[in-house]
Amino acid sequence: MKNRMQTLLLMAITTGSLLFMVSCDTVTEPYYSAGDTGPVDTSSVQKVVLLEDFTGIGCNNCPAASEVAADIADTYPDQVVTVAIHAGHFADPRQIDPGGVDYRTEVGTQLYNDFGFSSLPNGMVDRVEHAGSQVTSVSAWFENVASQLELDAVADVQVSSTYEESSRTADVTVGIEALSVLPATAQISVWLLESGMISPQKDNRQPGGKVDDYVHKHMFRASFNGAYGDVLSATGMAEGESVEVDFDLVLDEKFVAENCSIVAFVHVYDELTGERTVLQAAEIHLGD
Amino acid sequence: MRKVGLCLLGLAAACLPTQAQELSQGRLSGNAQVDAQYYVQDTVIGAEDVPQDGLMNAFMNLNYALGDFNAGVRYEAYLDPLLGFDPRFQGQGISYRFAEYSGDVVGVTVGNFYEQFGSGLVFRSYEERQLGIDNAMDGLRVRVNALDGLQFTGIIGKQRSYWNLGAGLVRGLNAEADLNALIPGMEESDVAIQLGASAVNRFQASNHPKYSLPDNVGAGSVRANISYGGFNIFAEFAFKSQDPSASDQYFWGGLDSTGSPVAAEFNPSGYSFNRGNAQLVTATYSERGLGVSLSMKRLDRMDFRSDRNATVNDLTMSFLPPLTKQHTYRLATLYPYATQPNGEFGLQGEVTYTIPRGSSLGGKYGTTVNVNFAQVTALDTSHVDAYTYESQFMGNSDDLFFRDFNVEISRKLNSDVKAMLSFFHLDYNKDVVEGKSGYGIITADIVVADVLFNLSDDVSLRVEAQHVWESQEETATESNYGNWMYGLAELTLGSNWFVTVFDEYNYGNENEKKQLHYYTIQTTFVEGAQRVALSWSRQREGLVCVGGVCRNVPASSGLALSVSTSF
Questions:
Q1: CB-based contacts of B5, cutoff 8 Å, min separation 6
Q2: Which residues from A are below 8 Å from B146, CB to CB?
Q3: Complex-level ipTM
């Protein structure tokens, strides 16, 4: 009798637990909405997110990932800066055309290695750790961007630039105002991007798995100040404090100035964890 | 109990002598391994420069057992990770720690643990070091032995993701019943019946601005194993609730701008809201000299992870056992099949027969013949809309993923010579299995001869010769390797020393620059549980697979050292 009671009791507990464990949410249509994020409040400085899309011309799935990056930028106008960084095994021209264009850069390769990338497409959203990794899959980008945009901007980044055609020199001025205290490890990075290059790209959605006249966009071409930029202030910045920094870069002869833009972003280095996190980004067309 | 209570109250000094005595009655065990490699740049095979020159993976497990109590830790170091292992392993530290009490009725584990429900269709937390997989749980596990033959297991926690934990919270319950032990009068029955049921849940909040993604995803399975004499049948059926996830990107393309279905292609906006299900049935019969098995497996959206955004081999909760034979001969491993968790239909049949010794065919010592056939195809599906599809239960499409027909004949020729001859015919969909494009289905015919010579009481020599004839469809736009030949010699000296030399030669590669030799020279010393191996090798790029799960290994050249021990 005791055994029977024990069994019945355990069965009841088990049944109850099973109902708890198999609980699941049923999603009904519509599964998708256009994602109207509402009007942007322009009365204060808006948070602007940096989305680094690591990609490669020999990567089958990368064009689709770039479309996601573009979709995110369209969803949050003026609040997302996307950069396509060609790096890693799948960015090697031998993957598609042994004599083809090599879009890899030293800075891009250093970032790819430093942040632990091993496959493409993958990316980083403000270089923030998600589920234990700063490197996140394409499907996580939308949610990570949405999470980052819930944060208040802690810095205002204003960029202006001029371009001297005869010397092919880009002069950039970046003004940074601290909207809250910025630590001494806060740094500024300034990058040159280019769009409009046409060259072959693998894409397994297309017949033959390749697009011969693929138009590359928002491609990282060069850094004005290395892989991790310059420290803003050796003592950090108090709330309300501003600095202005000038940079210049001679454009490679392959770059088309009219198709270039300047991206500047403030990021901090955590000495304890070794993590680098982007706080605020900005982008302007070269010459604006 | 009173003694423990006093200790917990902080009277540690009073307890120490007794504790020390009890600790000394326990048992300490463990194992350790160091794998290090010095790399040399070899641009000919595509082996890239390794700035550190040398890389190393190492670990040590320490377990302490005292009566019903167990505790343990594992130290791991990746300084830096060997090529082919995810760079996110970089670092060192305690990656696994647990304490466990196993009583007659109740057992409790806190900290890290591995667990599997049934065959793993809805939950398997495990470590496969060769693949760089460790999705250990970090949380709590409770086992209750309710009655003889009736056991419940409950789990809660998060899974390991490199040096962190995954995003989702995992909760699960498993019940196992052995009817022969549970039901009076069945103890002596010729029919043995075991039943099982599992339920698992993942919680991960979503804030996707465009898709309605479920925070809670549930999965469950029921199973039965019935045996009678030489017959055995195992069946497991599993289901999963809606789980739009990163894995959809590779298997579900939704509809394109013209409204046409886009299937089996990467489309990051292509979440599927179908529910998942799986069926696994295996029937076997065995008697002296004869073994027969028939299996069927059908998977439909069963990729289940504790982070919906995880990819590759990260944070897997479901383990989908392979239905195809796992080949170990080197050239056959060029075409390894990796389970396609979001949709496949597979069948396998295998017969092993030993022709009796003394017969005209069997020879003096008997001859064993093994015939195996397996085929895996895509599911027969049709799209309903951009987010859902219908799939036929028994219908399988014409899209072949993998087909394998192989025959193995082994025979002892005399008291000192044993030989084995194998033939494999493989059809391998490289585009699907390896996520590439343009290769199509590769057909490979492979022959293997494996002969062992006992040269003396202490010395033996094993030699292998292999060859693969490879062909591709006319529609292929990318060339695969082409033909290979392979030779191996392995000398065993006493019970301690082994010397192995082998070479793979890709003489049939269309690209003459890739008609290369890939060789390994290795010497191994084994003494009990201690092993030291030193090798120089030039390795091709390829997939390494264990249990239908694969990892890509880049080409490399260099000196490798492996040291392991257990105690």
A1: none
A2: 6-7, 10
A3: 0.83
